[in-house]
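Study this fold:
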Amino acid sequence: MGSMSWLHWVVLLAVLAIFFIPVARIFKRAGWSPWLTLVALIPGASIVVLWVFAFAPWPAVDGAKPPITD
């Protein structure tokens, strides 16, 4: 019960890819750095980034300068 088999790791990576790939594309289309998806791994920080992202001007839509660049 203390270790994970290779199948567990494959399922974990698939679930992470299903989540991270679309979120990274959304960030990129909005003009933000796609690396912000890694913030989702930090508990609580993802909620803060979601709120900032939701209410900040979107550079690709509003023509403003992005707050975080890669």
Q: What stands out?
A: The chain is about 55% helix and 0% strand. Residues 6-29 form the longest helix (24 residues).
